[in-house]
Amino acid sequence: MKLCNANLDMLSADVVRPQYDRSKLTPGIVHIGLGNFHRAHQAWYLHSLMQQGEAHDWAIIGAGVRVYDAAMREKLLAQDCLTTLIKLDPLGSSAEVSGSMIDYLPIEEGNASLIEAMSNPAIRIVSMTVTEGGYYIDPDSGDFDQSHEDIRHDAANPDRPRTAFGAMVAALKARRANGVGPFTALSCDNLQGNGAILRQCVVELARLSDPDLADWINREATFPNSMVDCIVPATSAELIARTHALGIEDAAPVSHESFRQWVIEDAFVAGRPAWEKVGATITDDVHTYEAMKLRMLNGGHQLLANAGELLSVATIADCMADDDISGFFRKVEEKEIAPFVQAVPEITPTGYLELIDGRFSNPQIRDSTRRVAFDGSSRHPGFLFPSLRDGLAAGRTVDGLALAEALWARMCAGEREDGTAIEPNDPNWTELQAAALSARSDPSAWLQLSCYGTLGQNVVFADSFSAWLNSLWTDGCRNTLRRFLEQ
Questions:
Q1: What is the CATH number of the domain that holds 422?
Q2: Which end of the chain is more exposed for a tag (fewer CB within 10 A), N or C?
Q3: Domain containing 71: what range?
């Protein structure tokens, strides 16, 4: 049956559904960038808290600033913003309908509805998942990119912004004018120091049009750092069919693993839900948690996905079942990444590697190598370059990380080893493919990409990268991986 409020009581007894009265929920959060991850993660934490009879005044209003968000809005509004969550675990699957989201704002030029919603005093948190590459930050310098076309537009048209950050600035301006305090801006993207980065984007954008407002935002608003973790594959036809088998017609179901983690700095100027009651970690030391996760899990994903794409291995679990790819993953993690990761109270780097090894190997999670390999131009600088810099500074081997970069370069040439085409898979694909093809005869062409900055000039790294890339083109991916494992 169609997923909607009216049909919740008719769902199978095997499906957990909201035990709270959704008609009495009131909004407290606007979330920008409402994809699968948010619905399986942050929205689920709030839903779980609501199941305990709390946080009914913290419901989520969804929002987006890109044209493609309109399709998701249409799907979710048609089913009262409910989402079927399918937990995929080797020990057994389960289903739950999450109901913490109650509306989805129109996607429109100028973002008037979004600005109006965020200006409402009832909205105390504005959260976002806009991907690592959505923050207009130069990956090498860390500076805010004031020259970007979108940023220049928002600086010149602050009342009709194009970006989420411009909309936040406009809403904060309205709140100040109306004598309303600021909201908390909460990034849930995979960026180290994501709160500090979000603060930088909002404050520096505001400064381009209204320096006094920028000072007020910087002084009064809060931007907590956070770390999020849950493997959430893209919605597939198989998942929709699986949902139908449960008797539910859901146009946008979400699958996820059983593991979830959310580590949050407690810096909320206008209050927050008691997320710690449903498993979130509230701490002043988000940095150590996020460094472990970004370097080992997200970095590990890149180790697997680029090799998997070249060898036509469909999913991350399939990569883990491939001795050459998984052996490469474990050796680089153990020798070149984990030595620069600090332990957290719950787990050591060695223990964390065993944890993610098991999670990546879960055959129930059909997480495609293509999805994980997407946007390497943001993910490699964010997830692998920090370990690479640390290894070079310490005088340790970086051969595995250099091979990881060579695999990325070889993948961006756009053809797998079986001759099938790799379709564009990065916002900067045209530039990457041109560099990758040039690098076949001149490896330095790849290291001249702006994302490498000074890394590309490091002789130790550059020499290792060149040798591995030549090996990939000459001997193939599998033979190159085996050569690395034999070292």
A1: 1.10.1040.10
A2: C
A3: 5-284
